[in-house]
Amino acid sequence: MKKFTALVLLAGAVTMALPAAAQFARPEDAIKYRQSAMYIMGQNAGRIGAMVQGRTPFDAKVAADSAATIEFASRLPWGAFGDGTDKASIATRAKPEVWTDKAKFQELADKLQAETTKLNTAAKTGNLDNIKAAMGGVGAACKACHDGFQAKQQ
């Protein structure tokens, strides 16, 4: 039920934010939107990661559902890094490089989207080894962007 609710909320958010950058009334709205998308990706990646690491039993359906959610959510946050969202009153860990090196930031966003597509494809096989291999690519894509564009949590 929680997964269904999360998917419904994501679908609603996407519908309302198709031209995302033009839809945010305030920079704080954009920040909340992108942080929410990242949170959903992280929660679902954590489920798969726990299975891949053997901390929780492997459940092919949960892995497939989580991978589909990650792939979907991987396309959401990027339009919410618009001009002015680096100077909002909401706390954000985005480094200034997000706005000063937009080409590299976009390259890493594209890489994440490609890797999440591979993960979703692998998860559909129901094979844990395929999922492990694909999850490595997703983890590397996340790390590359976080290393260059996200300030350390204090």
Structure description:
There is one protein chain. This protein is an all-alpha fold. The chain contains seven helices and no strands. The chain has one domain (25-81, 94-149): Four Helix Bundle (Hemerythrin (Met), subunit A) (Up-down Bundle). It has helices at residues 2-16, 20-23, 27-52, 60-73, 97-100, 102-125, 128-149. The chain is elongated and about 45 Å long. The mean pLDDT is 89.
Tell me the count of domains. Answer: 1
Distance between the termini: 33 Å
Mean pLDDT figure? 89
**Rg, please?**
16 Å
Q: How much helix is in the residues?
A: over 70%
The parts where pLDDT drops under 50 for at least 5 residues are none
Shape: elongated
The CATH topology is given as Four Helix Bundle (Hemerythrin (Met), subunit A)
User: What percentage of the residues does DSSP assign to strands (E)?
Assistant: under 5%
Report on the biggest sheet.
Answer: none
CATH C-level class is Mainly Alpha
Number of helices: 7
Report the structural category: mainly alpha
